Amino acid sequence: MDVTITPSRVAGRARAPPSKSYTHRAILAAGYASQTTVRDALWSADTKATARAVSLFGGNVDRDDDSLEVEGFDGQPGVPDDVIDCENSGTTMRLVTAAAALADGTSVLTGDGSLRSRPQGPLLEAIADLDGEAFSTRGNGQAPLVITGPISGTEVSIPGDVSSQYITALLMAGAVTEGGLEIDLETELKSAPYVDITLEVLDDFGVEAEKTKTGFAVDGGQRYDPADGEYRVPGDFSSISYLLAAGAIAGDDGVHVEGAKPSAQGDTAIVEIVEEMGADVDWNRDEGTIDVSATDLEGVEVSVEDTPDLLPTIATLGAVADGDTRITNAEHVRYKETDRVSAMAEELGKMGVETTEEQESLTVHGSESTLEGAAVDGRGDHRIVMALALAGLVADGETTIAGAEHVDVSFPNFFETLEELGATLDREN
């Protein structure tokens, strides 16, 4: 689907979708449990992939409005009777890879072309070190993956600077092993707040895990059992970033965002970033609301070491701001659905934005740029699509985004929300 955006001002109320990160973990945690109701779940392309994996392991997931009724496999995933297709969801593949290592037999995981190019090698090596079998069919550390369990080891070391999802996957699986798991980090952990999310979800499901001096540890023999058999998913700050940015660059009369209660999400940093750039921001943490309105923005320097999903949003804000916006510690952002550093540099470049790209950073030269409408490519990446849509709100002329349907991954009603806020856009299938 192509979406064409006409320059627009936005105002009004918008509700953030539920967190994709929390929903993934909640669905799999409910799979490890016996019977759970997951309320306010995000039902998107990615989270559906995790739900299908739970079903293939012997559980069942039924959707009822915004809730999921999950019949779990009670800590003992069965051998799937079909290949687990993770489609475009890296979170699904990594979390499910560790779950597959618990099954007494062989599981096969694959995904679309983008997912089959993403690194899984360190997690495969960790499973092998835990006495399981794990390999890439192409021998390159990328899907398709073949996993044979059950694992039996209790100690493993793994790099922390490739993906925090490896640690999440091992912690979630380790809780239901006999001996538990100690995870030593070989390198500094990047995207650390995502492991904090995992620890929070585990705690809500009655599972104890902890940080150690060298990494993380989880005792074995635990049961996933949330209070009253329910878990509620919080709002998604990665998605909130687009609503805040829309208000900061085009919300003369203000945008009111609901569903923004504090949580362990590192992407809550977007509130401080937008405020530091000069937007008028008021976050009522108790009510879970944020009000933001547009003012002249100034460039800033921001590290995305712990917040990789914010890079596309910050890049668009930088294109509108005066001065330079330098986004640092960004090398790991190159290993997402697409290389988001290059993607934003190249697509914003089509719109007249000057950037300087280095291996670990992206600098957006706002004062040297003139945002102009153009035909751009979403690169099959939901976050690139949404960030470019924001740029289209304030560009001179129409902006057409190819592949706009990929917002279904995390924010299925993104364009409807923009329209409700006053944006003018056309869809063409």
TrEMBL record:
Q: Which reaction does it catalyse?
A: 3-phosphoshikimate + phosphoenolpyruvate = 5-O-(1-carboxyvinyl)-3-phosphoshikimate + phosphate
The record's section on PROSITE patterns has: EPSP_SYNTHASE_2 (PS00885)
Top-level lineage group: Archaea
Primary role: Catalyzes the transfer of the enolpyruvyl moiety of phosphoenolpyruvate (PEP) to the 5-hydroxyl of shikimate-3-phosphate (S3P) to produce enolpyruvyl shikimate-3-phosphate and inorganic phosphate.
Q: What is its EC number?
A: 2.5.1.19
GO MF term list: 3-phosphoshikimate 1-carboxyvinyltransferase activity
**GO process annotations (BP):** amino acid biosynthetic process; aromatic amino acid family biosynthetic process; chorismate biosynthetic process
Name this protein carries in UniProt: 3-phosphoshikimate 1-carboxyvinyltransferase
What's in the keyword line of the UniProt record? Amino-acid biosynthesis, Aromatic amino acid biosynthesis, Cytoplasm, Transferase
Q: Which InterPro entries match?
A: Enolpyruvate_Tfrase_dom (IPR001986), Enolpyruvate_Tfrase_sf (IPR036968), EPSP_synthase (IPR006264), EPSP_synthase_CS (IPR023193), RNA3'P_cycl/enolpyr_Trfase_a/b (IPR013792)
Which organism is the protein's source? Natronococcus amylolyticus DSM 10524
Q: Does the keyword Nucleotidyltransferase apply?
A: no
List the active-site residues. D309
Q: Do you know which CDD domains this protein is assigned to? A: EPSP_synthase (cd01556)
Name the positions where phosphoenolpyruvate binds.
Answer: K20, G90, R118, Q165, R340, R383
Please tell me one Gene Ontology term that the record gives under cellular component.
cytoplasm
Instruction: Name where it's found.
Output: Cytoplasm
> According to its UniProt record, where is this protein mainly located?
cytoplasm
Instruction: Summarize where 3-phosphoshikimate binds, as residue positions.
Output: K20, S21, R25, S163, S164, Q165, S191, D309, K336
Its pathway?
Metabolic intermediate biosynthesis; chorismate biosynthesis; chorismate from D-erythrose 4-phosphate and phosphoenolpyruvate: step 6/7
Domain (Enolpyruvate transferase) spans 7-418
Q: Quaternary state and partners of this protein? A: Monomer.
A Pfam family of this chain:
EPSP_synthase
Protein family according to the UniProt entry: Belongs to the EPSP synthase family.
